[in-house]
Amino acid sequence: MAFSNITLELGTAIARLTLCRPEKLNSLDHATSREVRDALQLVQEDSAARVLILTGQGRAFCAGQDLTDPAMQSTEATVPDIGNVVSQNFNSLIAQLHALPVPTTIAAVNGIAAGGGVGLALACDFTIATRSAYFLQAFSRIGLSPDTGSSWFLPQRIGPARSMALTMLAEKLSADTAQSWGLIWKAIADDSFKAGVEALAERLVSSPTHALIRTRQAILASATHTLEQQLLIESAYVRELGMQHDYREGLEAFREKRKPKFGGRR
């Protein structure tokens, strides 16, 4: 499948999806969001993929919705249905990325993450940023409220008080502060950012595939579960995983005091 606004690399354990509209700060118009959704489907169908790295080209990760998109324009004569734009361009994309049945996803935030770009970054399992990057909930600057799941991701990670301030005041949040608040996993020096992302991806590739999938599912389920419900899920998942090859390999490696060689086999 040919793409115009993104690149997709498949065929190895590490899949790579790059937003390629640097002149637009990798903002998403209808065509680009469609390409990203199509690419995520291809990643899902690629049996080799065990990690997905999502990043942007140039100085931005993603600036959210492309405000120059004709569908976003508002005049005295024309009132846009922005809810429809969000539903078409973002809702299914965020849900698809957040639940992507690839063991792990990494948002490599190489620069500016603004508006819907913040939601895109937080929809991944790991969010890593360069120290020069920042996060900006810019919706209130143009008279809108959050989209792309930001009103869900932010309170889940940093609580309602900080979420309210970030979205209402539309202030930049540095990568270092984002890390200290728990919004992202790690901020990395710019000159070692690519190496840090690759090291994480390689580490995840060598991890037990099915255990990672169940770990993600268990943690995400906790948002709406009681402790009792979560205990039941944990029991079910470890029962399943305890019958698989990776568990046997992990035990043998523990006994032999060596590093396990997980194969992702059942």
From TrEMBL:
InterPro entries: ClpP/crotonase-like_dom_sf, Enoyl-CoA_hyd/isom_CS, Enoyl-CoA_hydra/iso, Enoyl-CoA_hydra_C. Pfam families: ECH_1. GO terms for molecular function: catalytic activity. Belongs to the enoyl-CoA hydratase/isomerase family. PANTHER family: EG:BACN32G11.4 PROTEIN, ENOYL-COA HYDRATASE. This is Enoyl-CoA hydratase-related protein. The lineage of its organism: Bacteria, Pseudomonadati, Pseudomonadota, Betaproteobacteria, Burkholderiales.
